[in-house]
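SAMPLE LOG
Freezer: B-3
Tube label: C17
Construct: single chain, 347 aa
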Amino acid sequence: MSETMRAVRIAEHGGPEVLELTEVAVPAPQPGEVLVQVTAVALNNTDLWTREGAYGRPGDPEALSGWRGPIAFPRIQGADVAGRVAAVGADVDESLVGRRVVVDPAIYASGEPDANPIGLMGSERDGGYAEYVTAPAERVHDVTGSPLTDDQLATLPTAYGTALGMIERGRLKEGETVLISGASGGVGIALIQIARARGARVLAVSSGSKIDAVREAGAHEVVDRSRDVVEQVHAAAPEGVDVALDVVAGDLVGDGLPLLREGGRWVVAGALGGYDVTFDVRRLYLHNAQVIGSAMHTPTHFALLMDLARKAEIRPVVAATFPLDQAAQAQEELARRRHVGKIVMHP
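STRUCTURE (predicted):
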C-alpha cells in the first residue's frame, strides 16, 4: 500500500470550485479504528450544504456552518462509503481485514444504542472522497455476503439511514397511509422502498418526468407537485394521512398539517422548500398531532438498515457514476436535481 492517496477536499466554503483534488498521506488507523479502502462513495445534499456552509447555527440562521458547527479545514468530504477493510488499529479484531463493509458515517452523542448523531463523516471528520478513510471499528458493518453491488451499498448510509430514522421516529405501522415529499431524491426513493416493505400505503409527491420512476420505486399513488398538492392528497386519501415524511418543508408543512388524521405524525428531515415555516398551531394540538424533527439515524436504526442490505430487501437506484477527479461535476449534477436515485463516485 502506498504512503499517499488521492483525495478531494475543501479548504473553505464556496461553490464547486473549492473542491480540490490533492495527494495526501494515507491516514493511519488509531486504536479502535479500521482503515477502509473506498470502492464507492455516494453523494448527498449534505455534501453540497457542507461545502456551501448552508446549515446556519442556533440563533444565527445565516451563519456559514458545517453540519453541526464550524468546520476544521481542510476537510475531505463524503459520508457514504462502501469498501474493504485494508488494515486495523490496535485493539481491533484482525479478521476484519479484507471484509466488504459499509461505514456508519454518524458521530454519536454517546455509546448508547439510541444515541442521536452530533457529527458526520465528511463534515466533522474526514470522509470518503478519497482512496482510503478511517472509521471507528464499531461503525463498520460487515456486508460481505450482500447481493447488492458496492455502488448500491454506498448509497445506503445517509439516504436510507435518514429514511429509516424518519420512519422509526414517525412510528409508521403496517396498513397506515404515508405521504412522502421530495420523492424522487435519494431519501425519497429510500422512504418509498422502506415504507412499502413495512406494508404502508404510499402517496408520493413528485413532478414531471420523475413521476414514472417514483411509481416504479413502489409508490401506490403519485401526487404532482406542480398542481395543488393538498387537493390531490384529499382525493387520494379522503380519510387523511397517518404519517408525513417530509424533506421539503417550506409551505408544505402549514398547507399539509390539516391532512393528518387524529394522532398523526409529521416528520421533517430537510428543508429543500425553505426553513422558515408557518402553521396553524390549532391543527396541531386539537388533533393530538406531532411535528417531529429527524436527523439521520441511531446505531439501532443503522443496524436494522444493514440487515435489510444483507437480505437485499431494498434495491437502491444508482443514477450515475463519476471518477473522483470529477467530484465538482458530480456535485453540480446532484445540484441540478434532474436524476432519480443516487450519484456515486469511484476513488
